[in-house]
Write a structure and sequence with these properties.
- It is an enzyme of class 3 (hydrolase).
- This protein is of the alpha+beta class.
- The protein contains 4 helices and 11 strands, in the order H-E-E-E-E-H-E-E-E-E-H-E-E-E-H.
- A hairpin with a 4-residue loop joins strand 6 and strand 7.
- The longest helix has 13 residues.
- It is globular.
Length: 208
């Protein structure tokens, strides 16, 4: 159990600080930069800590109706932290500053041409969450205890790739990479493990 309090915030910030991100590539990447927020808040049904997961609106042009962490493409001149905070505000109405950032995880390259930076943030005022219906169909609070279960994730082989596909089991849904990979690495960081996820595969339907 991880109560949503100052002690948990400090512990998670320390775990993120102890995590050594993979260095940025020396050569410019052809991938478009993007960022997502691993936004931590109260579960709403108790005092536990949860992360926010969204179901994307059916009206969106790309990846409609899929599970996702709040986030999107970086604007010109924008850092991943700035992009993650902006997207969190645009999608969920949460206005957070840089002081709420606890750390960053490894960049994850997607099959659809993006390099995603996960930014861990502390969202104390969960009452302020107001999903933007143009982007978000629903928002869900996933208790950290859920992602720390032994059976929360599995890995399967597909004929189209030599890399393993990661899957996060959430209720009756299967959540795939990149979202599943980023949540999995966060779970590993919480446990003090420096587990890399960039080689974890996405399902074929996400290769566009």
């Amino acid at each position: 159990m991880r109560p949503f309090d100052d002690a948990t915030r400090r512990n998670i910030a320390e775990a993120c600080a102890a995590f050594a991100r993979l260095p940025d590539a020396v050569e410019p990447s052809a991938l478009k930069r993007a960022a997502v927020a691993i936004a931590l808040t109260a579960t709403g049904e108790g005092d536990d800590t949860a992360l926010l997961l969204t179901l994307r609106a059916a009206s969106l042009r790309a990846h409609r109706g899929q599970w996702a962490l709040p986030g999107g493409r970086c604007d010109a001149g924008e850092t991943p932290v700035e992009a993650a905070l902006r997207e969190l505000n645009e999608e969920l109405g949460l206005r957070l500053g840089s002081g709420e950032v606890l750390g960053q995880l490894d960049d994850y390259p997607t099959r659809s041409g993006y390099l995603i930076t996960p930014v861990v943030v502390w969202a104390a005022d969960s009452a302020a969450i107001a999903p933007n219906p143009d982007e978000v169909a629903s928002v869900h609070r996933i208790a950290l205890a859920t992602i720390e279960r032994d059976d929360a994730f599995d890995f399967v082989a597909i004929p189209e790739s030599a890399r393993r596909v990661i899957r996060f089991h959430h209720q009756r849904s299967l959540i795939h990479a990149p979202t599943a990979a980023l949540i999995y690495q966060f779970r590993e960081v919480l446990a003090g493990r420096h587990t890399r996820v960039r080689e974890l595969e996405q399902p074929v339907f996400a290769w566009k």
